[in-house]
Amino acid sequence: MLEMRPDCERCGDDLPAEAAGAFICSFECTFCAPCAEALYERCPNCGGELLDRPTRAKALHAKFPPATARKFKR
After folding, report:
1. Buried b / exposed e across 26-51, counting CB within 10 Å, b at 16+?
2. Domain containing residue 27: CATH number
3. β-sheet bridge partners, residue 30
4. Number of domain units in the chain
5. Nearest alpha-carbon partner for 4 in 65, 72, 71
6. Domain-located, residue 26
7. Distance (Å, rounded) from C-alpha 22 to C-alpha 8?
8. Quick check: 34 and 50 in contact, CB under 8 A?
């Protein structure tokens, strides 16, 4: 199951699990659309391809909660 990380690792923007606009690599590194575009859709951590992250229905958050730990470092 996807971790559904809550923020962009590059700029810190919020990326809710139920909203479109997040991009992930095979290791679930997570980026917003503008950052993914600026990175030429390549993960800076592993070099993998960044693809659209699927959304998770809000009704399933209680049973399958998205991650809460943020990855962006200020």
Report:
1. eeebbbbbebbeeeeeebeeeeeebe
2. 3.30.40
3. 24
4. 1
5. 65
6. yes
7. 8
8. no
Is the overall model pTM greater than 0.85, yes or no? yes
Length of the chain: 74
- Digit-by-digit pLDDT tens for the chain (74 residues) are 899 999 999 999 999 999 999 999 999 999 999 999 999 999 999 999 999 999 999 999 999 999 999 988 76
Task: Name the residue range of residue 50's domain.
Answer: 1-68
Hey, what are 15's tokens? 């990326």
How high is the pLDDT of residue 62? 92
| Alpha-carbon span 62 to 41, nearest angstrom | 31
